[in-house]
Amino acid sequence: MAAFPNNTLRSFKPLSPTFNSSTVRNSVLARNSVSQVPSSTGAVSAKEKRSFPGKPEADVVVIGSGIGGLCCAGLLARYQQDVLVLESHDLPGGAAHSFDIKGFKFDSGPSLFSGFQSKGPQANPLSQVLDALGETIPCASYDSWMVYLPEGEFLSRIGPTEFYKDLEKYASANAVREWKKLLDAILPLSAAAMALPPLSIRGDLGVLSTAAARYAPSLLKSFVQMGPQGALGATKLLRPFSEIIDSLELKDPFIRNWVDLLAFLLAGVKSNGILSAEMIYMFAEWYKPGCCLEYPLHGSGAIVDGLVRGLKKFGGRISLGSHVEKIVVENGRATGVKLRSGQFIRAKKAVVSNASMWDTLNLLPKEVVPKSYLDRTKTTPQCESFMHLHLGFDAEDVRKDLGIHHIVVNDWDRGVDADQNVVLISVPSVLSPDLAPPGKHVLHAYLPGTEPFDLWKGFDRKSSAYKELKAERSEVMWRAVERAVGPGFSREKCEVKLVGSPLTHQRFLRRNRGTYGPAIQAGKDSFPGHSTSIPQLYCCGDSTFPGIGVPAVAASGAIVANSLVSVSQHSELLDAIGI
After folding, report:
1. pLDDT at position 48, please?
2. What range defines the domain where residue 473 resides?
3. Which conformational region is residue 68 in: left (phi greater than 0), alpha (psi within -120 to 50 degrees), or beta?
4. CB neighbour list of residue 47: distance below 8 Å, 6 or more residues apart
5. What are phi and psi of 216, to 5 degrees?
6. Is 160 helix (H, G, I), strand (E, B) or coil?
7. Cα distance between residue 135 and residue 43, in whole Å
């Protein structure tokens, strides 16, 4: 399942630039776990919050309700563990939450997905978790998005053959040959890349039973089917994808630029920094026969709804508006958390942080942090942050053939990771009209992890200088929107106009420097595991293996949940969901 850009593509992480609690959707909030008094609209204002209710303890306390945290908590509840999710905000979902302004329901992050309908060992990790929780996500299916490149603009279709037509028209005959050469080389490797279900992995030696022994036959079969050459290629799965590109002697500029774009959308690095396994998984979902893209009906918030429903169905709890101030460490072990209110919540078995590695570090008492942990966190490079543009407007005057997704690349020579160069646009009301009032559209445009935080550091959000900088830095998004939506679009007629900056990202997502996540390059470093040097403290999310992206963070949450239960419980779950 991809997030736009996230198929195995990464999740984009904006929270609502302007949060209006009086208009928030009520269906997903799990308010029964929080002692708060609903307003007349069903929402809860900050002034109405009281102290944390109910039993102030759980087997496992999960900090944060992002996709990774909810997957972890949901599976733990499925494993019959007493689990409590503590979320600082009034909405669950982290970067994947949705919000409502004047009847326009906006995605804050992920919007391009695939694999919701897949089942079995090769299914997307998020699909496997939802399956384990007995939840399904109704979706609209489609097969294309618009791209606006220096070479021209065209409707790019997924599947094994459609892209060849675009290459013939906008690139060259050589690009067609090289693209075919690339697909012929890597699609057979997808069997090996997908032979080990992420849900089978755990962080201890029990993995020899739940993964290695259980799936050895399918792994062996995939290697046999690939033949000697393919098996040799499979050894590169944990190497940078650029090594495969180079070994195939692919030199066409368009092909190399296109692959860099896909890699960047997937993991925030170009092809020389992304694991081959990640790219091959994405290629398998997008360029094999019968593939399609899927958008959740009712918005990306429907995914969060499903995960929260599954969590509660199995007895798990989620408490919104519960800000964790500190992770409590006693006798060298993580034993719970302290809320901003001062209340202590005990974790009898483990504390799981779904915060970034930098924010998790800030939750720990300085005196208990080993130097190695401190050094690793402080020296890990960060992706930059985001700019966001959320718009609500009348559909009457805009193009009638408007598609859901648009990618604008202004200049290949600057690189896809350059600031102000790549703009992503989603108009989900095209496929799910209920996201906007009748006859209207919702739109989310953003600069994907390329906006330098240092440009914004120290600004007063109420100052005129801050507003001027927002206007200046958002102009590239406005121009991209005008190009995508067509000549009938008018900035002045937009009924909702919200501009989010890296400071918005930092504030609402509580992300250090508003970062997209760790900028870890394959071949040079690897994402940290899920256990930490502090016993009973675990981490999941985009600061851990397998990395950034909706499928990746779902897998990370599952791995932590699996690691906290017995091998027999883990194996029983795999049997129950047929993998």
Report:
1. 37
2. 384-515
3. alpha
4. none
5. -55, -45
6. coil
7. 25
The pLDDT-based confidence of 33 (bands split at 50, 70, 90) is very low
Measured distance CA(416)–CA(538) in Å, rounded: 34
Instruction: Tell me, yes or no, whether 430 and 500 share the same domain.
Output: yes
Can you read off the two tokens belonging to residue 66?
A: 């992002």
Write out the two tokens for 42.
């069903």
What's the sign of the alpha-carbon dihedral 359, 317, 12, 398? negative
Q: Which CATH number is 132's domain given?
A: 3.50.50.60
CA distance 416 to 149: 11
For residues 373 and 2, which has the higher predicted lDDT (pLDDT)? 373
How far apart CA 294 and CA 116 sit, in angstroms, is 7
Nearest 10 degrees: CA dihedral of 525, 264, 100, 292?
-110
Q: Total structural domains in the chain?
A: 3
CB 57 within 8 A of CB 347: yes
Inside any domain, residue 451: yes
Is residue 362 pLDDT above 80, yes or no? yes
Q: What is the mean pLDDT of the chain?
A: 86
3-state DSSP call for residue 396? Answer: coil
Q: What is the pTM of this model?
A: 0.88
Angle between helices 125-132 and 301-313 (to 10 degrees): 40
Burial of 219 (0-12, 13-18, 19+ CB in 10 A): middle
CA R_g for the chain: 23
Q: What angle do CA 356, 305, 576 make, to 5 degrees?
A: 90
Identify the pLDDT of residue 40.
29
Residues 218 and 314 in one domain: no
Residue that finishes a domain, picked among 515, 540, 557: 515
